């Protein structure tokens, strides 16, 4: 008997779709990629032919009108997330939207509320959370192997400064390093602590030659109990991708942390004077994300994180940007 399939459409021809999400849906147990849309029909046709996608459309509206599509993936520039998430919800499509969900927490809340009212599943595309390493780290922490949580350190940087056509360098479109890569250590810290932060202090390089977006940012996020995240992120530094969790009796390190791959998706645990490596797990986090999304839509599983989580993460991003612009510590409610 053939498995049922969630029928996907993709709004836009972004690189992340080509590199990761299209292959993941096609490799998943639950998904079927039915169509791809672009405002340029020839571009959509080329992508459809390249990936063997049955349908292509010259507008996003045309894809949303297709009754053969159950869910959409939205990898559009950040400033378009709200518009097309709401349009997809109006068309009764379930939505996997790239991070960050919106340009600010107010927009994100509007999107979450609209999707809830429309009865569609909305998920922010944090694929790293779907990797089995994440659940395993939670087990290690709960088991007390590294003692009490004391600190978290997260870094995510790359050097894209020379590419002046990059949409991440357009301020009005939601450009900047905090939106692009800072969201990862910030979301991870909230997940690890299991609570929302109390304050944020961030220093950033706002580059006039890159439309005044934050090309690099470093900061501290404070949680109750004296625990803090120290992080740096940005688009004008050498590539780094690591998460370290520090306890009273040991540490857990994920490297690479937010871009796990099948060959290097390990966990390094230092405790009791010894270091051990768990993994590699050999799991494609994008495939895991696609399968979990479908099973949530079908009512077979609960989401790993709620749509409201995206609002809480945007509150923290808002606080970080405010702190960096004002050069002061921002207290959060």
UniProtKB/TrEMBL annotation:
The keyword Signal does not apply. Residues 135-253 form the GFO/IDH/MocA-like oxidoreductase domain. The keyword Oxidoreductase applies. Coiled coil: none annotated. Residues 6-123 form the Gfo/Idh/MocA-like oxidoreductase N-terminal domain. Keywords: Oxidoreductase. PANTHER family: OXIDOREDUCTASES, TRANS-1,2-DIHYDROBENZENE-1,2-DIOL DEHYDROGENASE. It comes from the Bacteria. This is Gfo/Idh/MocA family oxidoreductase. Belongs to the Gfo/Idh/MocA family. GO terms for molecular function: nucleotide binding; oxidoreductase activity. It comes from Cohnella terricola. Pfam families: GFO_IDH_MocA, GFO_IDH_MocA_C3.
């Amino acid at each position: 008997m053939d498995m049922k399939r969630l029928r996907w459409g993709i709004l836009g021809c972004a690189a992340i779709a080509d590199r990761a999400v299209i292959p993941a849906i096609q490799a998943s147990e639950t998904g079927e990629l039915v169509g791809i849309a672009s405002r340029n029909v020839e571009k959509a046709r080329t992508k459809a032919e390249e990936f063997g996608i049955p349908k292509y459309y010259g507008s996003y509206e045309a894809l949303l009108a297709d009754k053969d599509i159950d869910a959409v993936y939205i990898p559009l520039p950040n400033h378009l997330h709200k518009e097309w998430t709401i349009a997809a919800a109006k068309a009764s499509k379930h939505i996997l939207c790239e991070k960050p969900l919106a340009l600010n927490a107010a927009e994100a809340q509007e999107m979450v509320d609209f999707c809830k009212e429309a009865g569609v599943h909305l998920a922010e595309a944090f694929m790293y959370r779907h990797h089995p390493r994440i659940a395993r780290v939670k087990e290690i922490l709960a088991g007390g192997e590294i003692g009490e949580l004391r600190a978290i350190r997260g870094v995510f940087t790359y050097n894209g400064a020379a590419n002046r056509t990059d949409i991440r360098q357009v301020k009005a479109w939601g450009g900047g390093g905090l939106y692009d890569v800072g969201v990862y250590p910030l979301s991870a810290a909230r997940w690890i602590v299991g609570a929302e932060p109390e304050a944020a202090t961030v220093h950033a390089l706002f580059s006039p030659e890159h439309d005044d977006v934050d090309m690099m940012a470093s900061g501290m996020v404070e949680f109750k109990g004296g625990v803090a995240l120290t992080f740096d992120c940005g688009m004008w530094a050498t590539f780094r991708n690591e998460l370290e969790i520090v306890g009273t009796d040991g540490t857990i390190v994920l490297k690479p942390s937010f871009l796990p791959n099948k060959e290097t998706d390990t966990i390094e645990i230092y405790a009791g004077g010894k270091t051990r490596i768990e993994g590699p797990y050999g799991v494609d986090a994008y495939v895991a994300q696609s399968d979990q999304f479908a099973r949530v839509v079908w009512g077979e599983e609960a989401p790993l994180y709620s749509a409201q989580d995206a609002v809480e993460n945007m509150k923290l991003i808002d606080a970080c940007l405010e702190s960096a612009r004002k050069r002061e510590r921002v207290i959060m409610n």
